Amino acid sequence: SAVISQKPSRDICQRGTSLTIQCQVDSQVTMMFWYRQQPGQSLTLIATANQGSEATYESGFVIDKFPISRPNLTFSTLTVSNMSPEDSSIYLCSVLAGITDTQYFGPGTRLTVL
Amino acid sequence: EDKVVQSPLSLVVHEGDTVTLNCSYEVTNFRSLLWYKQEKKAPTFLFMLTSSGIEKKSGRLSSILDKKELFSILNITATQTGDSAVYLCAVENYGQNFVFGPGTRLSVLP
Q1: B44 shares contact with chain A (CB less than 8 Å)
Q2: What is the Cα–Cα distance from B109 to A46, expressed in whole angstroms?
Q3: Per residue in A15-35, pLDDT tens?
Q4: How many Å apart are CA B94 and CA B81, to the nearest integer?
């Protein structure tokens, strides 16, 4: 299994500022994912972060808005840049781990942009 | 420590069968329980349950929550091969945000 922690667990930010969310895993994993969850909606994949290479972004998400770092196999950060109220959401980090590539999710970061 | 347990972890059935997926939880400050279907990259939202005893239905899928016994079930009737996926249960609480279960991997054979 994999245990994932995220920081901060929640934040309230002003429009135009940026927030960096950290994701820490208790074991080395190759694939890490960043998702966004808005109330009552499906999780939306933002990007896949693989160590040693550029993150791969899904349609509708760009690196300038959501820069991602993946310095090693247990850690990643997602920055939400130049925030607007539309960025208010829960941001979740996820990894694939174990023999069967089970997906594990972090607890999420609840972001509110005023 | 908050946790969500799902059973079975994997299940193989034939088209037309009915399946019941289980999710039990131990969390503080319960807010809601969510079911997702994951086929590819991003889990698709199915249901959000907040009240006990009220069944939610969507086509062949239905779900119900028991807040006293701390569990939920997801039923799929007349299964089809397109139902093959991992079904995730997650509990949202007021403190930690989300706690996800390990998922049930459902395979529906023709």
Answers
A1: yes
A2: 32
A3: 999 999 999 999 998 889 999
A4: 37
